[in-house]
Amino acid sequence: MHFTSEQHLDGGVLERAFTLGDVPGILWTPAAVSEPAPLILICPPPLGLRRIHPRLAGRARYYAEEYGFASATIELPGSGERPRWDAAEQARADLRRAMEAGEPVGDDIIDALVLPLVEKSVPEWRSALDALLALPEIGGPVGYEGGVISIGVRLAAVEPRIKAAGFFAGSLVPAVMFEEARRVTIPLHVLLQWDDEDNDRQAALDLFDAFGSREKTLHANMGGHTGVPRFEFENGARFFARHLK
Predict the structure, then answer these.
(1) Which region holds residue 78: left if phi is over 0, alpha if psi is between -120 and 50, else beta?
(2) What SS3 state is found at 71?
(3) How much is the pTM?
(4) For residue 171, what pLDDT is reported?
(5) Which domains does the chain have, with CATH numbers?
(6) For the chain, is the Cβ count within 10 Å smaller at the N or the C terminus?
(7) How far does Cα 75 stand from its chain's mean position?
């Protein structure tokens, strides 16, 4: 891990950009902590870190100031400043074409769009976690939150260092992920926008039912993809406080 820049945000939160090999990322740590901080991994949507930086930094600042958590994110494959990924670009084009034509989005499109992203990104998240937990200011336990829910499902199933996860049910889910969801047993906090124009509501409900966790909570709110109420962010933070403090 190589830190490339740093700046102090309001509240004394330290934001540091880093690279891990050729993968860019950002780490936020709280001001003046007396012991190593718990860590939340924030998985971004595949829109590029530069574009969504204000949203990520706002979440990280809240976690740091209110609960003393560190937060970190990495750029997803094919997103932001990382090299273009021809197969992913083709899958997105096929998805747009189907949606614009009002056609059902077939399993072949969903698999081509999501599964390679899961296969490429989950090992990168695990490598990032290795490097982050080696820092003296971070000690765990570790939480995960993110909107590409299939990445979260795979990571929660294979990574024992993650103790709790918050999922956003707003992305397409390959059929194979329902079986993987049965292997997820950590506490879960899942958000669902009931009128999400980009989400298969029934698939989201079926995935929630498939999770093997004894503690799992589904929060469903009226509204579209970008209409998540502010209080749900605070609910999610309290969920992490229960399981990471």
Answers:
(1) left
(2) strand
(3) 0.92
(4) 76
(5) 2-82+123-244 (3.40.50.1820)
(6) C
(7) 11
